[in-house]
Amino acid sequence: MKNFLTVLLASSISVSAAYATKIKGKVLDGQTGEAIAGATVFLEQSGLSTKTQLDGSFEFKGLSAGVDRVHIKHMAYAELIKEIEIQKENTPHFIFQLTSTEQTLMEVTIKGRRNGGDDDPSARRLEKNASQIMNVVSARAIEISPDITVANVVQRVSGVSIERNSNGEGQYAILRGMDKRYNTTLVNGVKVPSPDNKYRYVPLDLFPSDMLERLEVYKSLTPNMEADAVGGVVNMVMKSAPTKLLLQANLATGYSQRYFNRDFGSFSTGGTSAKSPYEQHGKNYNATAADFNKGALDYTYKKPLPDLVGNLTIGNRYLDDKLGVILGASYQNLHRGSRSIFYKSAVVGVNPNAVITEQSDRQYDEQQQRLGLHNKIDYRFNPNHRISFYQMYVNLNNMQLRDAVNTIYNGQYDPSIGKAELTYVTRSRKTQQQIYNGTLQGDHHFLDNRLNVRWSGVLSSARNQLPQNTMISLDGVEENFERKRTSLVNKSPVTYRWERNTDNDHAGYWDVAYKVPMENSKLELSTGGLYRDKQRSSFYNNYNLSPASAEEAKYKYGVDFQRYTDLNLTVTNPTGAVANPLTYDAGEKTTALYGMFNYENDKWQMIGGIRMEHTNQNYKLLFPAGEKRPEGSQIYTEWLPSLTMKYHLDEKQQLHAAYYRALNRPGFYEIVPSSVVNEEFLEKGNPDLKHALADNFDLRYELFPEASSQFLVGMFYKKIKNPIEYTFQPDEVRKQDVYYTPGNFGNANNFGLEVDYIKYIQKFGVKANYTYTHSRITTAKMSRRINETTQDPEAIIVDQTRPLYGQAAHVANLSLLYKDANNGWEGQLAGSYTGSRINTVSQFLNDDLWQKGFVQLDASIEKKFKAGWAIFAKANNILNTPMELYVKGTNPENEKIAEKLIEGGNTLIRKDLYGQNYILGLRYSFSK
């Protein structure tokens, strides 16, 4: 009987299992068809619940056949309740469409918020509907990425590589192989000035990434966009007021692996004056050693405090949704550093035919304090009239201590000799960079919404300060492989330098658009323009200090003095050196007008027109000091046509083509006839430098099979007239001096191929892109030949064709994504590859300095909890990828070098190592 019951029970279980079934389905946005991730799906009868995955899919297993009631909930949508029939087998996949809770709002709100680009589906929709060829990174993608600055976020975009600073962090964007000088940076569509002391381009590491609603990269232009963007445009769209109460906050801490086993070098910045003695006391003042704060020479070495990263955003709408307000603040306090080893020959420049005789071993320690503040207030008078005021302030303080040991060997570089001449050079530098932008905008509609008038008034300012940049040099000796600091160098062992520059922009924009009534198609005619007055001031001053007596110059470090603050110094140039070409005023007035049409029907969209930009750029040296051209100006007008066409093959795929002409203006520093001693070489401006012009062509196939997925493949071509490149050139008067200076070099060509792919399958996703770029430019180089008569070597000038500066032939990104909506896990592993590219253009033939191709691997993970809480972690530079510079070729004597600098016929010139960085934090998000 017992065996019979066992068999009967087993049979019952088998029958039940046989009739158990499963169902699958997707949850979509009823308006856009986008997949909705993170929606809760609940079955009444079974009591089971789950959440939709990255592609909006869900699945239930072990269900009984019959009728059940499904409940679907999502915070941004109205709840859906519906009866479903579950069949014994082969139940058709269910498709559920949710209705947005914002449908009750007026049309402009739906358009503004549902297209906000703050999540991946919205970002894909923006790319699909955009007039320009562009890529978008959503706020959510930024939030869960390993990146905490805009500079590192932008490297994930196809066709974009980044230039890193001395501590390994991303700083500048290179778009489609075009150097950073060819790119424009916008905030909410408005150009911002740069705090850089030399160039126009904006360092993107100033901006904390959590300020953004989305990041847009434009790769083609329309006539209503500013034309100074041969490479492209980086547009940071900042967070705007939400439709309901929003509170977001995060707090994180971290550490750099570099400081697990070494101390962090720093100095005292207290008491450092932003103004030099010349500015404080007047031009006839004779400075003494007491005028210089000794904190810059007060070095300490100890373990740094943990890093700190924090953000707070709060926003809401008031007065029956007429008034919107958002406030945001972001703060980062990071400790970064690197070790840099630099090899060179005794001759000027790095010549593969020369023997390496020098080495510089540099340790960088840098504290970064990054602050971002922004707020936006908008008021809707009625559906036809709206006004807004936006303010942004970003500030980056860098306190960097660089300790370098410069080694010069007699003859060939050979550390095994154990004896060399040394110089110890320690530099303490505080750099303050800041940007402010205030924009007042109005948007008005008339004639039943056929006439649209938009205007903007903009005040922007950028500032860069290096107060009391201090450098001290000591002689040293190396004996029996032991390096020792000995006495102060004989001439001016201590220098103090003040540098400051400001850019102030006042600009006005206006646009008028009229919709022409038409049947079965749309036509909009528009015109507009801008006027910008940019004023720049630049200041430079330095003082040299030496031992107070000849006897003190012989004092030994560690014997006669223990700390640099103990030194008794005297000022050798008490009135300073303000009388130099780097102290100047400059200005630029830009006037632009455009005319544009926008035609659209069921299959075609065409946008075309022409833009005129008139430029009046000038400079005036405040201390000419015998310069032949103390004042100068460049005045020119360019007419810049463009045409964009988009053909819809069907609802999911389209062809996108574009042509536009763009220009690139020289920076003020580049046209001022100044000369300055840099770390490794001399620099000089070029008042004859011309602006560059480029004709740009694009063709791209675009497929958007699902809301969050895409496949894009395109080609681009750029023909550049008078491209601007930096090269080494001999001075016209002092032939023995060689300067690194900008120049125009005929014509250049740049073409390439881009591929973008994004795909999500349930919990997994992949984002991948690849860009191939090929460019060519021809510049003059110095070479040698044997004189047939005398048989002696002589210098000659030859032309060499090479890639554009900064252009890598291969750039790729691959991110592997994971999201478990039911358990609240989300993470990614992100890899970026940048191929080899020219880092410095040499004056010698076949002597350019190349950066070796590298892979950077980063990762991030997040775990969500109830009530809006989450924990997250980020890891950067996991592989500790170095930055390596090399020249092609080598002298046979360099094969003997102990460090094995020769590989594959190339000679290593520089190697920087940065270490890994980690962050662990807590995030909170509340939306009413």
From TrEMBL:
Transmembrane among keywords: yes
Subcellular location per the Swiss-Prot or TrEMBL entry: Cell outer membrane
Gene Ontology terms: cellular component: cell outer membrane
Membrane topology: Multi-pass membrane protein
Lineage top rank: taxon: Bacteria
Main localization category: membrane
UniProt cross-references to Gene3D superfamilies, sorted A to Z: Carboxypeptidase-like, regulatory domain, TonB-dependent receptor, beta-barrel domain, TonB-dependent receptor, plug domain
Domain Outer membrane protein beta-barrel residues, every copy: 567-883
Keywords: Cell outer membrane, Membrane, Receptor, Transmembrane, Transmembrane beta strand, Transport
Recorded family membership: Belongs to the TonB-dependent receptor family.
Protein name: TonB-dependent receptor
Source species of the chain: Sphingobacterium siyangense
